[in-house]
Protein backbone atom coordinates (compact mmCIF):
# COMPACT_ATOMS: atom_id res chain seq x y z
CA UNK A 1 0.00 0.00 0.00
CA UNK A 2 1.39 3.48 -0.82
CA UNK A 3 1.79 6.17 1.80
CA UNK A 4 0.46 9.73 1.56
CA UNK A 5 2.95 12.50 0.86
CA UNK A 6 2.59 16.28 0.92
CA UNK A 7 3.30 17.39 -2.66
CA UNK A 8 3.05 21.11 -1.82
CA UNK A 9 1.54 23.53 0.68
CA UNK A 10 0.33 27.13 0.48
CA UNK A 11 -1.60 29.73 2.41
CA UNK A 12 -3.44 33.00 2.16
CA UNK A 13 -4.45 35.55 4.78
CA UNK A 14 -6.43 38.77 4.25
CA UNK A 15 -4.37 41.95 3.81
CA UNK A 16 -6.07 43.77 6.71
CA UNK A 17 -3.99 43.49 9.89
CA UNK A 18 -5.69 44.17 13.23
CA UNK A 19 -3.41 44.92 16.19
CA UNK A 20 -4.14 44.51 19.87
CA UNK A 21 -4.26 48.29 20.12
CA UNK A 22 -6.91 48.36 17.37
CA UNK A 23 -9.00 45.96 19.49
CA UNK A 24 -8.57 48.16 22.56
CA UNK A 25 -10.53 50.87 20.67
CA UNK A 26 -13.44 48.44 20.15
CA UNK A 27 -13.64 46.85 23.61
CA UNK A 28 -12.18 47.05 27.11
CA UNK A 29 -8.90 45.22 26.55
CA UNK A 30 -5.19 45.97 26.17
CA UNK A 31 -2.11 44.85 24.29
CA UNK A 32 -0.61 43.83 27.65
CA UNK A 33 -3.56 41.53 28.59
CA UNK A 34 -3.74 39.87 25.16
CA UNK A 35 0.05 39.45 24.78
CA UNK A 36 0.59 38.05 28.28
CA UNK A 37 -2.37 35.62 28.20
CA UNK A 38 -2.11 34.42 24.60
CA UNK A 39 1.09 35.62 22.89
CA UNK A 40 -1.02 37.18 20.11
CA UNK A 41 0.08 40.58 18.75
CA UNK A 42 -1.82 40.81 15.45
CA UNK A 43 -4.41 38.91 13.44
CA UNK A 44 -5.78 39.28 9.91
CA UNK A 45 -9.44 40.07 9.28
CA UNK A 46 -11.34 39.90 5.99
CA UNK A 47 -12.57 43.01 4.19
CA UNK A 48 -15.65 43.50 2.02
CA UNK A 49 -15.81 40.94 -0.78
CA UNK A 50 -13.60 38.35 0.93
CA UNK A 51 -15.11 35.08 2.16
CA UNK A 52 -13.86 31.81 3.60
CA UNK A 53 -14.07 30.30 0.13
CA UNK A 54 -12.11 33.15 -1.46
CA UNK A 55 -9.35 32.68 1.13
CA UNK A 56 -9.40 28.92 0.53
CA UNK A 57 -9.24 29.43 -3.25
CA UNK A 58 -6.16 31.65 -2.96
CA UNK A 59 -4.44 29.22 -0.57
CA UNK A 60 -5.27 26.32 -2.92
CA UNK A 61 -3.94 28.19 -5.97
CA UNK A 62 -0.76 28.98 -4.04
CA UNK A 63 -0.23 25.30 -3.21
CA UNK A 64 -1.12 24.21 -6.76
CA UNK A 65 1.37 26.64 -8.28
CA UNK A 66 4.14 25.37 -6.00
CA UNK A 67 3.18 21.81 -6.97
CA UNK A 68 3.36 22.82 -10.65
CA UNK A 69 -0.19 21.57 -11.10
CA UNK A 70 -3.39 22.92 -12.59
CA UNK A 71 -6.67 22.58 -10.64
CA UNK A 72 -7.89 19.92 -13.10
CA UNK A 73 -5.20 17.56 -11.77
CA UNK A 74 -7.18 17.29 -8.50
CA UNK A 75 -9.55 14.39 -7.99
CA UNK A 76 -10.94 15.27 -4.53
CA UNK A 77 -11.39 18.26 -2.19
CA UNK A 78 -11.42 17.98 1.60
CA UNK A 79 -12.44 21.33 3.09
CA UNK A 80 -12.06 21.83 6.85
CA UNK A 81 -13.85 24.74 8.50
CA UNK A 82 -16.04 25.63 11.45
CA UNK A 83 -17.01 28.98 9.90
CA UNK A 84 -18.84 28.04 6.69
CA UNK A 85 -19.99 30.76 4.30
CA UNK A 86 -23.54 29.30 4.34
CA UNK A 87 -25.56 26.73 6.29
CA UNK A 88 -25.70 24.61 3.16
CA UNK A 89 -24.24 23.43 0.90
CA UNK A 90 -20.79 23.05 2.38
CA UNK A 91 -17.87 25.28 1.42
CA UNK A 92 -16.23 22.43 -0.52
CA UNK A 93 -18.57 22.73 -3.50
CA UNK A 94 -18.13 26.50 -3.64
CA UNK A 95 -14.37 26.02 -3.67
CA UNK A 96 -14.70 23.39 -6.40
CA UNK A 97 -16.65 25.93 -8.49
CA UNK A 98 -14.12 28.70 -7.76
CA UNK A 99 -11.35 26.43 -9.04
CA UNK A 100 -13.29 25.88 -12.28
CA UNK A 101 -13.86 22.19 -11.53
CA UNK A 102 -16.89 19.96 -11.89
CA UNK A 103 -17.62 16.36 -10.94
CA UNK A 104 -14.86 15.74 -8.37
CA UNK A 105 -16.14 15.11 -4.83
CA UNK A 106 -15.93 17.85 -2.20
CA UNK A 107 -16.34 16.91 1.45
CA UNK A 108 -16.64 19.34 4.37
CA UNK A 109 -14.99 18.42 7.68
CA UNK A 110 -16.47 20.14 10.76
CA UNK A 111 -13.97 19.47 13.51
CA UNK A 112 -12.94 22.98 14.44
CA UNK A 113 -9.30 23.32 15.57
CA UNK A 114 -8.70 19.61 14.93
CA UNK A 115 -10.19 19.93 11.46
CA UNK A 116 -6.98 19.83 9.46
CA UNK A 117 -5.74 16.62 11.10
CA UNK A 118 -9.21 15.03 10.85
CA UNK A 119 -9.20 15.99 7.15
CA UNK A 120 -5.68 14.63 6.73
CA UNK A 121 -6.79 11.33 8.22
CA UNK A 122 -9.68 11.06 5.74
CA UNK A 123 -7.51 12.02 2.77
CA UNK A 124 -4.74 9.64 3.89
CA UNK A 125 -7.17 6.70 4.02
CA UNK A 126 -8.49 7.47 0.53
CA UNK A 127 -5.01 7.86 -0.94
CA UNK A 128 -3.63 4.69 0.66
CA UNK A 129 -6.55 2.63 -0.61
CA UNK A 130 -6.19 4.15 -4.08
CA UNK A 131 -9.61 5.81 -4.14
CA UNK A 132 -8.13 9.25 -4.93
CA UNK A 133 -4.66 10.24 -6.16
CA UNK A 134 -4.52 14.04 -5.88
CA UNK A 135 -6.37 15.45 -2.89
CA UNK A 136 -6.65 19.15 -2.07
CA UNK A 137 -6.82 19.49 1.72
CA UNK A 138 -7.83 22.97 2.87
CA UNK A 139 -8.37 24.55 6.28
CA UNK A 140 -9.98 27.98 6.06
CA UNK A 141 -11.80 30.23 8.50
CA UNK A 142 -13.47 33.63 8.67
CA UNK A 143 -13.91 34.24 12.38
CA UNK A 144 -13.90 38.03 12.37
CA UNK A 145 -17.47 38.47 11.12
CA UNK A 146 -18.80 36.19 13.87
CA UNK A 147 -16.97 37.69 16.82
CA UNK A 148 -18.68 39.83 19.44
CA UNK A 149 -16.39 42.85 19.15
CA UNK A 150 -17.73 44.49 22.30
CA UNK A 151 -16.46 44.05 25.86
CA UNK A 152 -19.03 41.23 26.30
CA UNK A 153 -17.12 39.10 23.80
CA UNK A 154 -13.57 40.14 24.66
CA UNK A 155 -12.49 36.75 26.05
CA UNK A 156 -12.92 35.18 22.59
CA UNK A 157 -12.81 38.14 20.17
CA UNK A 158 -9.14 38.89 20.86
CA UNK A 159 -8.03 35.31 20.16
CA UNK A 160 -9.32 34.53 16.67
CA UNK A 161 -8.16 35.50 13.18
CA UNK A 162 -9.03 34.75 9.56
CA UNK A 163 -6.93 32.78 7.07
CA UNK A 164 -6.55 29.68 4.93
CA UNK A 165 -3.92 27.00 4.46
CA UNK A 166 -3.80 24.26 1.84
CA UNK A 167 -1.92 21.08 1.03
CA UNK A 168 -1.84 18.94 -2.11
CA UNK A 169 -1.58 15.29 -1.12
CA UNK A 170 -0.80 12.22 -3.20
CA UNK A 171 0.60 8.69 -2.99
CA UNK A 172 4.29 7.85 -2.67
CA UNK A 173 5.87 4.41 -3.00
CA UNK A 174 8.94 5.50 -1.03
CA UNK A 175 8.62 3.40 2.18
CA UNK A 176 10.74 5.90 4.16
CA UNK A 177 8.36 8.82 3.61
CA UNK A 178 4.79 9.99 4.02
CA UNK A 179 2.09 9.99 6.68
CA UNK A 180 3.02 7.33 9.26
CA UNK A 181 -0.18 7.53 11.30
CA UNK A 182 -3.05 9.79 12.34
CA UNK A 183 -4.92 9.65 15.67
CA UNK A 184 -8.36 11.21 16.18
CA UNK A 185 -10.25 11.79 19.42
CA UNK A 186 -13.50 13.40 20.58
CA UNK A 187 -15.34 13.83 23.87
CA UNK A 188 -18.81 15.31 23.38
CA UNK A 189 -19.38 15.69 27.11
CA UNK A 190 -17.59 19.03 26.69
CA UNK A 191 -19.48 20.21 23.60
CA UNK A 192 -20.90 23.35 25.22
CA UNK A 193 -17.54 24.50 26.63
CA UNK A 194 -16.72 26.13 23.29
CA UNK A 195 -19.68 26.50 20.98
CA UNK A 196 -22.05 28.58 18.94
CA UNK A 197 -25.57 27.70 20.12
CA UNK A 198 -27.57 29.17 17.26
CA UNK A 199 -28.97 29.76 14.76
CA UNK A 200 -29.58 26.04 14.70
CA UNK A 201 -32.30 23.54 14.00
CA UNK A 202 -32.36 22.50 17.66
CA UNK A 203 -34.26 25.78 18.12
CA UNK A 204 -37.79 26.49 16.96
CA UNK A 205 -37.76 28.99 15.36
CA UNK A 206 -34.20 28.23 14.40
CA UNK A 207 -33.32 31.93 14.36
CA UNK A 208 -35.03 34.72 16.31
CA UNK A 209 -34.42 38.28 17.42
CA UNK A 210 -34.27 37.03 21.01
CA UNK A 211 -31.52 34.58 20.12
CA UNK A 212 -29.50 37.33 18.46
CA UNK A 213 -30.13 39.71 21.38
CA UNK A 214 -28.76 37.09 23.78
CA UNK A 215 -25.69 36.65 21.57
CA UNK A 216 -26.30 32.94 20.98
CA UNK A 217 -24.86 33.36 17.48
CA UNK A 218 -21.44 34.21 18.95
CA UNK A 219 -18.79 31.69 19.98
CA UNK A 220 -18.67 31.36 23.76
CA UNK A 221 -15.89 29.58 25.56
CA UNK A 222 -14.97 28.37 29.02
CA UNK A 223 -11.38 29.39 28.39
CA UNK A 224 -9.83 27.88 31.52
CA UNK A 225 -11.45 24.47 30.85
CA UNK A 226 -10.28 24.49 27.22
CA UNK A 227 -6.80 25.42 28.41
CA UNK A 228 -6.73 22.68 31.06
CA UNK A 229 -7.74 19.85 28.73
CA UNK A 230 -5.65 21.08 25.77
CA UNK A 231 -2.42 21.19 27.75
CA UNK A 232 -2.86 17.54 28.83
CA UNK A 233 -4.46 15.93 25.78
CA UNK A 234 -2.21 17.44 23.12
CA UNK A 235 0.99 15.98 24.63
CA UNK A 236 -0.83 12.65 25.12
CA UNK A 237 -1.79 12.59 21.45
CA UNK A 238 1.83 13.28 20.46
CA UNK A 239 3.02 10.41 22.68
CA UNK A 240 0.52 8.08 20.98
CA UNK A 241 1.68 9.16 17.51
CA UNK A 242 5.31 8.51 18.45
CA UNK A 243 4.57 5.13 20.08
CA UNK A 244 2.62 3.98 17.00
CA UNK A 245 5.85 4.09 14.97
CA UNK A 246 8.33 3.25 17.75
CA UNK A 247 9.70 6.82 17.80
CA UNK A 248 10.91 9.08 20.62
CA UNK A 249 10.52 12.84 21.24
CA UNK A 250 14.22 13.31 20.49
CA UNK A 251 13.59 12.15 16.91
CA UNK A 252 11.05 14.93 16.24
CA UNK A 253 12.51 17.49 13.89
CA UNK A 254 9.46 19.73 14.10
CA UNK A 255 6.23 19.78 16.07
CA UNK A 256 3.60 21.98 14.44
CA UNK A 257 0.85 22.35 17.04
CA UNK A 258 -2.49 24.06 16.51
CA UNK A 259 -1.97 27.72 17.33
CA UNK A 260 -4.56 28.59 20.01
CA UNK A 261 -2.46 30.17 22.72
CA UNK A 262 1.33 30.52 23.11
CA UNK A 263 1.05 29.41 26.75
CA UNK A 264 -0.63 26.16 25.66
CA UNK A 265 2.09 25.60 23.03
CA UNK A 266 4.79 26.16 25.68
CA UNK A 267 3.09 23.74 28.09
CA UNK A 268 2.86 21.11 25.35
CA UNK A 269 6.55 21.63 24.55
CA UNK A 270 7.53 21.21 28.20
CA UNK A 271 5.31 18.15 28.71
CA UNK A 272 6.92 16.36 25.75
CA UNK A 273 10.40 17.64 26.62
CA UNK A 274 11.19 19.39 23.34
CA UNK A 275 13.76 22.10 22.64
CA UNK A 276 12.65 25.47 21.22
CA UNK A 277 13.97 24.58 17.77
CA UNK A 278 11.68 21.52 17.68
CA UNK A 279 8.45 23.54 17.93
CA UNK A 280 6.94 26.02 15.48
CA UNK A 281 4.78 28.93 16.64
CA UNK A 282 3.42 31.86 14.64
CA UNK A 283 0.38 32.68 16.76
CA UNK A 284 1.76 36.18 17.45
CA UNK A 285 1.00 37.10 13.80
CA UNK A 286 -2.27 35.34 13.05
CA UNK A 287 -4.06 34.49 16.32
CA UNK A 288 -6.14 31.33 16.31
CA UNK A 289 -7.19 30.54 12.74
CA UNK A 290 -8.67 27.17 13.81
CA UNK A 291 -8.56 24.64 10.91
CA UNK A 292 -6.17 26.94 9.01
CA UNK A 293 -3.58 27.29 11.76
CA UNK A 294 -1.63 24.07 11.15
CA UNK A 295 -1.34 24.36 7.34
CA UNK A 296 -0.36 28.06 7.61
CA UNK A 297 2.28 27.25 10.24
CA UNK A 298 3.50 24.24 8.25
CA UNK A 299 3.94 26.30 5.09
CA UNK A 300 5.83 29.02 6.97
CA UNK A 301 8.05 26.44 8.66
CA UNK A 302 8.88 24.91 5.28
CA UNK A 303 9.72 28.33 3.81
CA UNK A 304 11.98 28.98 6.82
CA UNK A 305 13.89 25.76 6.10
CA UNK A 306 12.77 24.11 9.35
CA UNK A 307 11.98 20.78 7.66
CA UNK A 308 13.95 18.69 5.12
CA UNK A 309 13.26 15.49 3.25
CA UNK A 310 13.22 12.53 5.67
CA UNK A 311 12.66 14.66 8.80
CA UNK A 312 10.02 13.65 11.34
CA UNK A 313 7.12 16.11 11.48
CA UNK A 314 4.46 15.77 14.17
CA UNK A 315 1.13 17.63 14.20
CA UNK A 316 -1.23 18.00 17.16
CA UNK A 317 -4.45 19.93 17.68
CA UNK A 318 -7.17 20.48 20.25
CA UNK A 319 -10.40 22.42 20.13
CA UNK A 320 -14.14 22.71 20.35
CA UNK A 321 -16.04 19.46 20.77
CA UNK A 322 -13.80 18.67 22.50
CA UNK A 323 -11.91 17.11 19.62
CA UNK A 324 -8.20 16.53 19.44
CA UNK A 325 -5.83 14.76 17.08
CA UNK A 326 -2.24 14.06 16.11
CA UNK A 327 -0.25 12.88 13.11
CA UNK A 328 3.30 11.67 12.52
CA UNK A 329 4.75 12.31 9.07
CA UNK A 330 8.13 11.40 7.61
CA UNK A 331 8.69 14.42 5.35
N1 LIG B 1 -8.98 41.84 27.91
C1 LIG B 1 -8.94 42.15 29.21
N2 LIG B 1 -9.49 41.36 30.16
C2 LIG B 1 -10.10 40.24 29.76
C3 LIG B 1 -10.19 39.88 28.42
C4 LIG B 1 -9.61 40.72 27.47
N3 LIG B 1 -9.61 40.47 26.14
N4 LIG B 1 -10.85 38.72 28.32
C5 LIG B 1 -11.18 38.35 29.56
N5 LIG B 1 -10.75 39.29 30.44
C6 LIG B 1 -10.90 39.29 31.88
C7 LIG B 1 -12.05 38.43 32.35
O1 LIG B 1 -13.24 39.19 32.36
C8 LIG B 1 -11.62 38.03 33.72
O2 LIG B 1 -11.86 39.11 34.59
P1 LIG B 1 -12.36 38.85 36.11
O3 LIG B 1 -11.28 38.04 36.76
O4 LIG B 1 -12.52 40.22 36.67
O5 LIG B 1 -13.65 38.10 35.96
C9 LIG B 1 -10.12 37.88 33.57
O6 LIG B 1 -9.74 38.67 32.43
C10 LIG B 1 -9.70 36.44 33.33
O7 LIG B 1 -8.32 36.45 33.31
P2 LIG B 1 -7.51 35.12 33.51
O8 LIG B 1 -8.14 34.27 34.56
O9 LIG B 1 -6.08 35.45 33.70
O10 LIG B 1 -7.72 34.44 32.07
P3 LIG B 1 -7.01 33.14 31.58
O11 LIG B 1 -5.64 33.02 32.12
O12 LIG B 1 -7.95 31.99 31.74
O13 LIG B 1 -6.84 33.42 30.02
C11 LIG B 1 -7.72 32.75 27.89
C12 LIG B 1 -7.96 33.51 29.22
C13 LIG B 1 -6.61 33.49 27.14
C14 LIG B 1 -8.99 32.80 27.09
C15 LIG B 1 -7.31 31.31 28.18
O14 LIG B 1 -8.22 30.72 29.06
C16 LIG B 1 -7.19 30.46 26.94
O15 LIG B 1 -6.39 30.69 26.06
N6 LIG B 1 -7.96 29.37 26.87
C17 LIG B 1 -7.86 28.44 25.75
C18 LIG B 1 -8.49 28.96 24.53
C19 LIG B 1 -8.29 27.94 23.45
O16 LIG B 1 -7.32 27.21 23.41
N7 LIG B 1 -9.17 27.82 22.52
C20 LIG B 1 -8.86 26.81 21.53
C21 LIG B 1 -9.90 26.22 20.93
S1 LIG B 1 -10.59 27.28 19.76
C22 LIG B 1 -11.53 26.28 18.75
O17 LIG B 1 -11.55 25.12 18.84
C23 LIG B 1 -12.39 26.99 17.71
Task: Quickly describe the structure.
With 331 residues, the protein is α/β, with parallel strands linked by helices.
Topology:
Elements: E1 3-12, E2 17-19, H1 20-24, H2 31-38, E3 42-44, H3 52-67, E4 76-80, H4 91-98, E5 106-109, H5 115-129, E6 135-141, H6 154-157, E7 163-172, E8 178-186, E9 194-195, H7 209-214, E10 220-221, H8 223-244, E11 254-257, H9 262-272, H10 283-286, H11 293-303, E12 312-319, E13 323-330
Parallel strand pairs: 4-5, 4-6, 11-12
Antiparallel strand pairs: 1-7, 2-3, 6-7, 8-13, 9-10, 12-13
The chain binds acetyl coenzyme *A (ACO).
Q: In words, what does this structure look like?
A:
The chain is α/β, with parallel strands linked by helices and 331 residues long. The protein has two domains: 3-172, 3-Layer(aba) Sandwich (Peroxisomal Thiolase, Chain A, domain 1); 178-330, Thiolase/Chalcone synthase (Peroxisomal Thiolase, Chain A, domain 1). The chain has eleven helices and 13 strands. The chain has helices spanning 20-24, 31-38, 52-67, 91-98, 115-129, 154-157, 209-214, 223-244, 262-272, 283-286, 293-303, and strands at 3-12, 17-19, 42-44, 76-80, 106-109, 135-141, 163-172, 178-186, 194-195, 220-221, 254-257, 312-319, 323-330. It has a five-stranded mixed sheet with strand order 1-7-6-4-5, with helices on both faces. Strand 4, helix 4 (91-98) and strand 5 (106-109) form a beta-alpha-beta unit. The longest helix has 22 residues, at 223-244. The chain starts with a strand and ends with a strand. The relative contact order is 0.19. Acetyl coenzyme *A (ACO) binds at residues 29, 33-34, 37-38, 82, 112-113, 154-155, 158, 194, 223-224, 226-227, 230, 260-261, 264, 288, 290, 319-320. Acetyl coenzyme *A binds at residues 29, 33-34, 37-38, 82, 112-113, 154-155, 158, 194, 223-224, 226-227, 230, 260-261, 264, 288, 290, 319-320.
